[in-house]
């Protein structure tokens, strides 16, 4: 039997189990065990699990697992929560650099709970008649709707995620409604295979597709079921974007130990 000490963080309701694995003490975790820990009835309960690993070239390395137990692609809210956790461990000085599955990231902290995360540049956005498709560290299908609150996100998202094009690799599916000067986003996440309260890479993808034609800096306020985020970026070409920052709260919920 192995003992684990874990921390539970959430970023706009997107919640994660986090462990300090700089000594490799949790390398024994299996996909099945990760899945059990993320179970909301029989485990701790989370949308994903992250290990903060040691890195030779960066402040730390991020290893992310989806709730289904499989290693996932980049998670924006997860990256923000892991940066907040690193700050709690006195790593860095409020400015952090880390390596994730999609490459290097920077993060800055404003106060204790607000984290700004630099995302990867976007060099192409596929635009269809009623959708956008792009990769912001994870693949995202974006569809604008008239009433996002009335949208059946689970049913509609599942249909798209498992359609002929996406079934093998999967995609996240975002339903977006403009409001005031920003957007409201609801997301069906692959790996969780359900709607989550928020999705950082999804919010980023939605904000990018909301930008106008003008090549300039944009600041897009985003409402999710779990709270408010902000996406900042520069449109540099017809379908290219850089200096992309996902900004929002990342909060420690509780910590604990258990035997597994």
From TrEMBL:
Entry annotated with the keyword GTP-binding: no
SUPFAM superfamilies found in the cross-reference section: Diaminopimelate epimerase-like
Positions of substrate binding: 14, 66, 76-77, 172, 189-190, 200-201
GO MF, any single term: hydrolase activity
Record field: transmembrane: none
Annotated EC: 5.1.1.7
Quaternary organization: Homodimer.
Protein function: Catalyzes the stereoinversion of LL-2,6-diaminopimelate (L,L-DAP) to meso-diaminopimelate (meso-DAP), a precursor of L-lysine and an essential component of the bacterial peptidoglycan.
Name of the molecule in the record: Diaminopimelate epimerase
Species annotation: Chitinophaga nivalis
């Amino acid at each position: 039997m192995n003992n684990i000490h874990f921390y539970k963080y959430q970023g706009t309701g997107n919640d994660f189990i986090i462990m300090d694995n700089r000594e490799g003490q949790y390398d024994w975790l299996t996909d099945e065990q990760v899945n059990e820990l993320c179970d909301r009835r029989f485990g701790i309960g989370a949308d994903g699990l992250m290990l903060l690993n040691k890195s030779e070239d960066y402040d730390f390395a991020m290893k992310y697992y989806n709730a289904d137990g499989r290693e996932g692609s980049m998670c924006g809210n997860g990256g923000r929560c892991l940066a907040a956790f690193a700050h709690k461990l006195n790593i860095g000085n409020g400015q952090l650099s880390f390596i994730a599955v999609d490459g290097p990231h920077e993060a800055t902290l404003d106060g204790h709970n607000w984290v700004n995360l630099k995302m990867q540049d976007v060099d192409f956005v596929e635009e269809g008649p009623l959708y956008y498709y792009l990769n912001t560290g994870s693949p995202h299908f974006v569809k604008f709707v008239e009433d996002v609150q009335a949208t059946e996100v689970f049913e509609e998202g599942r249909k798209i995620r498992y359609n002929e094009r996406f079934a093998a690799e999967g995609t996240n599916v975002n339903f977006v409604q403009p409001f005031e000067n920003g957007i409201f986003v609801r997301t069906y996440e692959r790996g969780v295979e359900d709607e989550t309260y928020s999705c950082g890479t999804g919010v980023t993808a939605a904000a990018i597709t909301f930008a106008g034609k003008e090549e300039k800096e944009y600041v897009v306020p985003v409402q999710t079921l779990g709270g408010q985020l902000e996406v900042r970026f520069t449109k540099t070409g017809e379908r290219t974007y850089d200096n992309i920052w996902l900004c929002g709260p990342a909060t420690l919920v509780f910590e604990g130990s258990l035997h597994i």
